[in-house]
Amino acid sequence: MTDQTAGTAPAGLSPDEARRADAAHTGPMLAADGTPLKKSLARALRRQKLRALALIAPLLIFVLVTFVVPIGDMLLRSVQNGIVADTLPETVETLSDWDHDGTALPGDDVWTAFYIDMWFAVERKEHTRLGTRLNYELTGMSSMFRKTGRQVDRFDTDVYGEQFVALDPSWGQPQSWAAMLDGPAADALPLTARTWERWKDFNAEEGDKVLEEDIPDFLFTALYHDLTHGAEVEGVSDRLSAAKAAAAEFEPVDLSAQFADADEDLGNIDVWKTLQLYSPRVTSGYFANSVDMQLTPDGIEARPENQQIYGILFKRTLFMSLVITGSCILLAYPVAWLLSNLPMRTANLLMILVLLPFWTSLLVRTSAWKVMLQQQGVINDVLVWLGLVADDARLTMINNQFGTIVAMTHILLPFMILPMYSVMSTIPPSYLRAAKSLGATNWTAFWRVYFPQSVPGIGAGSILVFILAIGYYITPEIVGGNTGTFISNRIAYHISSSLNWGLAAALGTILLAVVLVLYWAYDKIVGIDNVKLG
Amino acid sequence: MSELVIKTGRPPMNFTLLMVGGFGLILGFLTGNVVGAPLIGLVLGAAVGAGLGYVLNTMVPKKAVGRWAVIGAFALVGLVFGGFGGAVGGALIGAVLGWFAYWVGRGRYRDGVPLYYTPGQTLWWNSFLFICGAIFVFLITPILVVLPLSFNAEDFFTFTPEMLRLDPEGYSLKHYRDFFQTSDWQLALKNSLIIAPIATVISVSLGTLAAIGLSQSHVPFKRPIMAVLISPMIVPLIISATGMFFFYSTLGNFLEDSVGLSKSFVGYVKVILAHAVLGIPFVIITVTATLVGFDRSLTRAAANMGADPVTTFFRVQMPLILPGVISGGLFAFITSFDEVVVVLFVGSAAQKTLPWQMFIGLREQISPTILAVATILVCISIALLATLEILRRRSERLRGMSPG
Hints:
heterodimer, A: 27 helices, 1% strand, B: 78% helix, cell inner membrane (chain B), MetI-like_sf (chain B), transmembrane helix (chain B), ABC transmembrane type-1 domain-containing protein (chain B), MetI-like (chain B)
């Protein structure tokens, strides 16, 4: 080769020098179309990459939109808490200054804000939703909001309107309000201006004209509140100055008493603490709840012993998944060994016994285990018929942990056998024979030679089975009873029965984190491209 | 020079008597227990077992004759004492005992082991085979138990005495009739047959394209892309369902209110999209596995002869990877057809699928119609399994033929 190359180069130069000289002479090597070869190759490579990406893109976008975004949405929901701030904006604002450590209930400004917020919430029928939300944190909130909602329209605040109108009839005209709050008075009367805006929006939503509606009581209440709390109305308008002077003499309405009348729970300081605690738009409350803690004004602290359920559930889920994985290993190892050491024809026949359960519907297998395990089921019947168990002492094998473990071991066993089989069938049988011919006993040969080579199969199968087991829902729901259920059953309960979706999302996020760590480990150990099916 | 003596053939007679007698003892004890006289059964069983072991191995050299004789005798005894059911039970016991007697007496238990194995090793090997057999029984029994129960004439989940006596009165097709005549089940079947094929088509078409893209030689970000595409299989269904529940209800409201589609149509769209994405990992895995063995020079040859990429794909590449695509499609189909959790969360009652109806049936009203459906589904999965096996063989044959 070298000789040939050297032959074409000018005499006296080494091949390398010749190439360099050649390059200096003719410039860079060119492709057929005249562009430098390097550039042309890079372009071809780029085009290839783009073509590959273009083929993948539709699916990637599809998976991102229909799968990854929903999961991201769930993650967000586990911390989202906009409902309090959306429903009670004024209350949240004023309550932020309230000192929750004191023993005093919030002051007048909070009551006024709460009155206005509640009026809007009731009209939009949002107060029951808020009540349901806060009821997860403090029992009784739901009924409190419901009861207060019925009363809020009948408060005695109409006296403010009467007194303002008596002072100057123009206070009863919406036009005068619109004109006033369009000008500098809006700065002097912040609460009134904000409430007026909300009132306008509300009318727009309802399709009414704000200028044709009567001025509602809460607007007068807001105005009274602004005027009696040091509004700077000097020089804004005479009407306002007169109103401010007169307002000091008005007959007041004690809103806290009105609310206490509607529901005495509102006099409970815990209600206000909870409201203040859950006013931020982002809360760690759901996560705290999902690890048996609770959010308190002083930070996060553990729940009382008798309210702790999620710790037990998480531990039980982990424990049972481990037991299921362990029993799958125990049962799958001999079978995989036998399958990979039998002649091909026999092994293929026996493989059907593994693949048939694998292909059979999950619900078919679960119902089969219900048929087998129940008190009047096949196993108990056979045991009684054989006289091994008395008829009145039938074994309880379902609706407990035992039932879940047996059924799930059966359902997940093929997922363990198949990876083990694919690893074991690559181990040459001559290794074992070599070990034995060198004097190893059967056990030593197996333990020191065969077993270490089969460990990757055990690892692949175990992670797969564990990941599948930890998120199982259907089988524990049907055969698990009370003691054999998993964390996923609790998530489903919160989604469909208790409707505490934030908590469900938080529990799901924790479970997802565990699974993703395992997925990452699986990718490192086995590689996702090496997953085999059937 | 002493000759090397290899002991093959029959074990000593007292060993045979001991083993067969012991086996008869166990069977006798169990049989005796059924009729309430375990001790008599025990003694009788041991005696009959030992007797059989001697008689069969010394006087009846023809195996078939001996075994059929034993089966016939036991069936007759069973018929006398327990009617038709007893005869079947007796025949079963006779078959097992007859086989065991020859198996021990002729030393067949050493068939699977090398000549130099010690008795202990032989015992271990046979126990190992027995354990494996027990595991196979564990795997297959639940599925087999469902089949006869679905023909139960009563509304129970258990074998009735009539069924055990093999009385035709105890069997009926009423649960199958129930399945085909109840509107709930028919709606569920119809929904499953609408949702699963459409979801399969979506995941197969997108998945095959992407798998071809992924198997190119230069793919940027291959690992993260692969991780995202496989994730629907790894993320627990309950989490997928939770996420989809929130997101798809927003999407559904948008489609209904802003686009103005009908409620039931939107319901189907949501479930189909959800099922399609769940089936995608299976398509990706099977098709990329097929493409690993694909000979690239074939596409280059096609291009060389003037075929454009689309023609090359449909005329050269597609026929060769078709088995992989079909088996991926079958996986996607069964994923959708068998899926409960997501449809339970995303769908509404109008989209109730077959597994959903079964789930309700298992949780609330326990009706053996479920077992009839289960039997039908088992038959479907047997058909799918057979299809897959045929495809696998075909794929191997095709690959064997292709050069390289």
